[in-house]
Each structure stands twice: as structure tokens, then as C-alpha cells.
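Team,

Forwarding the record for the chain on the shared tracking sheet. I've put the sequence and predicted structure together so nobody has to dig through attachments.
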Amino acid sequence: MSGAKNQVHNGTLLQSQLQTMNEAGHESIGKGADTLASLWQPYQCPVPFLPWLAWSQGVNQWDEAWPEQVKRDVIAQSFEQHKHLGTRYAIINSVKPFGYKTELKEWFEMQPPAQAGTFSVDVGVTNKGIDFDVIEQIYTAISNSKRKSVQFDLSVSLLSESELQLAAATTTGVTTTVYPYFASEITSQSSLDIAIANQSINQIKIYPRSSYVTATILDHADPSGAR
């Protein structure tokens, strides 16, 4: 009796099987939901569904011969392209997924200025050669991105790129040798001061002049003044 109660409490075998089936079904539905979400992700969508994803995102240019990475890049930037259609940014960005180097000049940037309302595009191809398919691919991408009212000149050329690496190193050093102090000779210095004084006296006697005394008398005159 107790066993029957336990069986009723735990559910019948059919109920257990139904529960297992429901869990498996829920797991499959969960995986399906995750797969469905990935279908809208350009870098997670399975390759066979990429054309449909491109169509849903408004991609105007598509080629099944493109590499897988190019396809995903074109889809990923489609929304941004539609936001800026007709601008310089959109034109340059249109050939970016293909790995080309693009330089655009509008008519007023040229020397001498070109016809008003026109522009020129120089495209450098680096990862492969140039053929008609490449030129048509570039021309179509630019035509889908520019304003319909403007004309442009297209120049396509091969571009070779290389990396130049330079390295330089310098080392400097100073060697200083310190020797102990050694006095090889002792020098004594002194000063000698010499002072010399010289004094000389000259005695001069001055007599009054007498015009009436002859020179002979003056020569024999008494110097003491006696008569």
C-alpha cells in the first residue's frame, strides 16, 4: 500500500516519459531560437544563408564568387552605407571591403579645377591583378554610393606596399680612474718687500742786484755782508 502511494506521488511512468520528452523539446526549441538569432548576425550567419541576409539588409551589389570575409563585411557595413549614401564617406567606404586603397578628389580640389559637380577616384589594387571584372566591381560599387546627378572619372592602378623596418642602438660609457694623492715636491713661496727713500737738499743764496757796483767789486764782495 505504501508503494502504491509513492507511485502516485511520484507520477506514473507515462507522466515521467512525457516530462522527458517535453524537456528535450524545450532544449531543441532553445537551440532553434539561438540559431534563428544568429541568422541576423553578419559574422555568425551560416554561409548558405548570407545571400538572404544581404537581401534583407538592402545590399545592392553581390557576387557569389566573393570570398566569405568580403561577403560578411559588405553585409555588416550595409546599414552604415545607407545612412551616408551620396556622400564622400559612402563612396570611399563602398570599396573598403575589397581591400582597395581609395583617394577621392572633388572638382574644386583639382589643379586646375575640373567641371563643377564632378569628382575623380583613384583606386589602388594591392591584393590581386587588374582585369575587367575588377574594374566593373569598383565602378558598380562607386555608382551605387554616389549621387545620381554627378559624374566621375575612375583610375585603377596596381599598388605595391612593403614595410621597412629600421632599428638603431647606441651605447656610451665613461671610465674614470682615481689615484691616491701623492705630493712629488714641496714648494715654499715667500715675498720680500724692499723700500728705498732718497732725500736731497739744494741750498741757493740770492743776493740783491746792484747796478752801480762793478762786477769786479761784486766778485770780491764779502758774502757775510760786512763792509
